[in-house]
Design brief:
Four copies of one chain form a homotetramer. By secondary structure, the first copy, chain A, is an alpha/beta fold. Chain A contains nine helices and ten strands. An eight-stranded parallel barrel of chain A has the order 3-4-5-6-7-8-9-10, surrounded by six helices. Chain A has a two-stranded antiparallel ribbon with strand order 1-2.
Chain lengths: ~290, ~290, ~290, ~290
């Protein structure tokens, strides 16, 4: 009862016997908390960081409009997908390399550093040449060749939790990156798959509490994929900050009903501005710098 | 994108075809939000309500000590189990009727209204004669005879979500009570069962966001059973308030290592006082009266 | 690797610390396998037992037609619900006491012993006066007052697994019955709740394998609720028998599209006859008497 | 009730809106069942196919001993991992390219075609030069670049279901392969992740029943990873065949306690011989050629 939490429990299917040495992602007397720097932005410091933008890069004009809007309304980083991993091969797969150039242009215009997903170890070099931060998506959390290649790029990484990844497995996935010598890793909770269908996924803020108590790496939360519906995004964003999250990854679109993907869960710029104000107030009330 | 959330999705196993008329628990133009009154306390009003106390009533002295401690540190209601539904018949089952008398004494001493669980439809009358609010526990959420009997008692009810209950099923369970004419029902989210074992259950604050957007009934959160470990309880309590919860149900014990049940997740009175202060700050930052 | 299975793992949410003495349901050198006798029928013996009938008793003529049809096509017991626990109070709740009389008449006509569900501890005496075997339904698996009352009736019990009950919790539920001195308990696997929606529930035949290796009580399987669709019932029934199940609980209706509940998963009498033949062939091939 | 199953339900998190054209993996009047040929072996024909061998290739002598043992006891194909995707980077990762040469030698000695996993799109060419069939492992089921590259190799593929993959998502993953023009795809059910911990995973034979009713591709089952314990493997293997599986993938080791991975669930050659006999008997009883 001394405030020392119990050891992390192993997953129910018995995978992942605890390695003999503690995972590098865990805080120990020898290993202090990590701050991750993406251009002028610091993740894991006193201020929360808002990353916002469209699910996918859809067009030059659309991206620039949204980038300017999120920059004007409180975002410190721009998100946007160039390659989209889609359940079905018949769904929109992203613009690929063309999107990378558009993201670079949006950065030049707004000054916001860019985070974008890489799916294929053969594309890491190309994406790392443009992106300020590489995103490893939920479906790739245990894509070990990709984790190693992304780690070796030297870029900061945003490692999303898989839909059915335990905290322990997630930290082991981070270990594949940390083993390359790259410690610039941010974990991103985005909701897990459960029996409940009222929201798209079940946001696991217990995992955020566990990580903030045990882990050295910054933790951000994606309330958009968890909620799946714009009506619930802001409440979950506030809750994430109150649970201790170091930042948020939020989908914003200037015309959500026309978005090629995830329109149902994308905020308008005005809704994003309100979210930013609400979250900074909660951050201040939770003992953080607003 | 008008801010109108999508319809509640049905559970994946196909139970519960939507009834033709909307559930009574849902807000409609005709049906306003419900406030639930338990003695001098109002749930669903501007202020958050803290209910605190031991998992189970264990002894007269212990209960009175804890009751005084939570009253002095911010609780507006006292919780404590007389009958404990335990997985195994070999675990401590509660003191039963004797505990009811002790709870009444603790109320007389502190002035705090009492919430306590009733397990058996044959015990409803006896428990309702003492308790200010009846708790229907997680394992009883679809115990339909108990729901009807508890509804007919006329007492306010605290209806915990089951470990395996969808939001839709939970609202249907509430419907069994509302059908008796008793609308004094508070919903209590306490974590669902998932594959993750880092916390005892997975707190579903998405459900809280959904209910605050759609449902007429007050919603409180039990961060203790969700966390399962005192190290994570306060972060989850803050998050629950930020998500919109109308109150919290928190396990407190003055000597957690010696508790007969749930010691690992019970706060000391000093920890509870800190939780109360943190949650009122978040409530104010979220636009509520502190 | 001696063929001794590993100890039962505890549920991920940490409930249910193993009691110091082994559960009474487990096989030990001192405790042999239990055979359960329901009139002329033996569960847990060399022959598989088929229990069949409608989801709910709907009318006298309908019940008698179906009872005669299943008796003529291989059933040794008749199932049928008098009280139906339904997610919503607006769904058909069963005919109640009138259905008990109709079940008694169907037994008189066909000679088949009856299994029917009891929901409320206050109804146990009334149901036990008619039924040959009491069913405890999935939602009641941790309704401890009901388990005790049903155990004390002295009737054989069919204890269905809950939708999200671990094997360990299920055996602890059985322990509440065994503690009353009544060992005539049959466990019924009926599918658990998971993320998958292609079937109504996920039939857990791994649990059947575990129970047949470790537990003293007979185990039967309900493929109807697991499948949720008549197209998959027979394949799951064969698989259950091959996994070692001692019998099956199958929904049969002579006019499935007009059934008041569960029509989608109810076999016609002709389909049931084919299922019975297929299952006896698999039983023989699995080393059982056909 | 015509025997036509209901449409596949979508996953609870709303991913994967059904594409307008039916998936290529589904049977339609225009598209007949696929048989997959791996050397002299046919999957999806009248006979069940047994694939057996060690979890990982550990040494030349060990592999040859096990290969000869499974060939002598009923296996038609040899399995064995060269690259092992492990939760932790500190666990044994496989012998890599050296293992490929050993597998080729084992094939030369026994005549059994080889199935082995490929993890990285950059390794597909090298693995396809040796293996008769490429395995896509559970963690790679939505590794879309890998699926495309493996499809383009022209080799038959064994596509394992992910721990967290719905049937619908699994068929969409197969679609990524089928889109390359390669239809030689076998689906492998290996258990899903649920709340239950009594077995390593929860074997979903409902999914096998659904696929045999709806899908054109052969379906095999891995009872070893589902059970996680040798005590339950044979019962699940029999059940899989009774549910309609076209074959089995079974872990066999001649000294399970000394296996570098999965020893707890590996059968000895004698246990495998008994499994083979039992499964052929069930196959015959289920209307297949033994």
């Amino acid at each position: 009862m001394s405030g020392e939490p119990a050891p992390l429990r192993l997953p129910p299917d018995g995978t992942g016997a605890a390695p003999e040495r503690p995972l590098r992602a865990l805080r120990t007397p020898e290993r202090a908390a990590v701050q991750v720097r993406v251009g002028p932005v610091t993740l894991g410091g006193p201020r929360i960081v808002l990353m916002a933008g469209p699910c996918a890069v859809e067009s030059r004009e659309g991206l620039l409009r949204i980038a300017r809007a999120v920059a004007a309304n409180g975002a410190q980083m721009l998100r946007g997908g160039a390659w989209k991993p889609r359940t079905s091969p018949h769904d929109f797969q992203g613009l690929g390399p063309d999107a990378l150039e558009l993201l670079a242009e949006a950065r030049a215009v707004t000054g916001l550093p860019i985070v974008t997903e890489v799916l294929d170890p053969r594309e890491v070099e190309r994406v790392a040449a443009v992106a300020d931060m590489l995103q490893i998506g939920s479906r790739s959390v245990q894509n070990f060749p990709l984790l190693r290649e992304a780690g070796l790029s030297g870029r900061p990484l945003l490692l999303k939790r898989g839909m059915m990844t335990t905290v322990y497995e997630w930290l082991c996935a981070a270990e594949y990156v940390l083993e390359t010598g790259n410690e610039q890793v941010v974990l991103c909770e985005r909701g897990i798959r459960t029996f409940e269908g009222a929201t798209r996924n079940t946001l696991d803020l217990g995992a955020v509490a566990v990580l903030k108590a045990r882990c050295r790496l910054p933790v951000v939360v994606d309330p958009s994929h968890a909620a799946g519906d714009v009506a619930y995004v802001t409440a979950l964003a506030r809750a994430a900050v109150a649970a201790g999250a170091d930042g948020l990854l939020v989908e914003v679109h200037d015309d959500p009903p026309r978005a090629l993907s995830d329109g149902q869960q994308s905020l308008t710029p005005a809704q994003f501005a309100a979210l930013a104000a609400a979250c900074h107030a909660v951050a201040a009330a939770s003992g953080r710098d607003a």
